[in-house]
């Protein structure tokens, strides 16, 4: 069993409208935009990052907003719900706030003894707010949401699978252990993790295969401390027969990618060097930052990309 994985690093989803998505994440949910850059492979499209005030791994939601993308189809082989942690007793505040902002799909449920509020993102993506006690991660309060109700970071992610066995074995290799099971859902936990250390495996044998589009999670990334830890994880996965990409420099972390047995795209990302790598911490997410290979496109991109705050 590997010991280097610390929990979720970030989750990346597909979107249609950059401005609508940015307002939803920053104004409605109250997260901080910590980086405004572009897709490495499609520089005419933003890559937007949202997190707590410091961009701490385990709090980071990112989006690729493709203006003409079709709607995604929910189903097996993807993250079905991205779940944020909020303080105990805060769901009344959030339900009222989301209603006032016109958010759809609001419903409460209890899972493994914890209360959560389900809701839809503006792209049709699945979200939930899960009450937690004693979450030490610092919130971002730039949107005027009080600290005692503000989002702390990820609580968990729910993977929808037709057959969980392969993904369960993979997560076990990655240091996750079964915690509890109910109603066809297995919860796995990375002990001593970064706070975003829960994964729920939802087995739905009859679920259609997910189709990528607006509202789909493109990939889920798991955190490791540094390059040495990442290479150790890569070697172990290769030894188990997984086809792993070379290490790719994403400016704010280093990444490797592979397909999980259930069909989802997994990434292992380093905590280093972080989002202050090219921007002062006090001004994260304000200026358009470009990967070096796309620096020559700045004038064109600044003219063509939709304007978002800052």
UniProtKB/TrEMBL annotation:
Residues in Cyclic nucleotide-binding domain copies: 77-120
InterPro entries reported in the protein's UniProt record: cNMP-bd_dom, Extradiol_RC_dioxygenase, Glyas_Bleomycin-R_OHBP_Dase, Glyas_Fos-R_dOase_dom, VOC_core
Entry-linked CDD domains: PcpA_C_like (cd08347)
One of the Pfam families matching this protein, by short name: Glyoxalase
Boundaries of every VOC domain copy: 7-132, 153-271
Name of this chain's protein: Glyoxalase family protein
Organism of this sequence: Nitratireductor aquibiodomus
């Amino acid at each position: 069993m590997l010991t280097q994985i610390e929990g979720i690093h970030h989750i990346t989803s597909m979107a249609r409208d950059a401005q609508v998505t940015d307002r939803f994440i920053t104004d409605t949910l109250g997260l901080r935009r910590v980086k405004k850059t572009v897709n490495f492979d499609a520089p005419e499209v933003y890559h937007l990052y949202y997190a707590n005030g410091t961009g701490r791994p385990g709090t980071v939601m990112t989006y690729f907003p493709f203006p003409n993308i079709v709607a995604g189809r929910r189903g097996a082989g993807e993250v079905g719900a991205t779940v944020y942690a909020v303080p105990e007793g805060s769901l009344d505040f959030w339900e009222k706030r989301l209603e006032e902002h016109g958010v759809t799909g609001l419903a409460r449920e209890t899972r493994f003894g914890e209360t959560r509020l389900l809701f839809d993102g503006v792209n049709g993506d699945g979200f939930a707010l899960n009450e937690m006690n004693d979450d030490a991660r610092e919130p971002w309060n730039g949107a005027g949401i009080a600290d005692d109700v503000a989002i702390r970071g990820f609580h968990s992610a729910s993977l929808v699978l037709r057959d969980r066995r392969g993904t369960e074995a993979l997560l076990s290799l990655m240091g996750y252990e079964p915690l509890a099971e109910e109603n066809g859902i297995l919860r796995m936990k990375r002990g001593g993790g970064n706070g975003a250390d829960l994964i729920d495996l939802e087995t739905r044998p009859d679920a259609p295969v997910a189709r990528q589009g607006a509202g789909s999670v493109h990939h889920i990334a798991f955190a490791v401390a540094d390059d040495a830890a990442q290479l150790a994880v890569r070697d172990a996965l290769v030894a188990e027969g997984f086809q792993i990409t070379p290490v790719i420099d994403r400016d704010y972390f280093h990444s490797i990618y592979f397909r999980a047995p259930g069909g989802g795209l997994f990434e292992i990302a380093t905590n280093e060097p972080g989002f202050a790598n090219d921007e002062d911490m006090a001004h994260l997410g304000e200026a358009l930052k470009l990967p070096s290979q796309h620096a020559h496109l700045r004038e064109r991109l600044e003219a063509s990309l939709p304007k978002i705050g800052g």
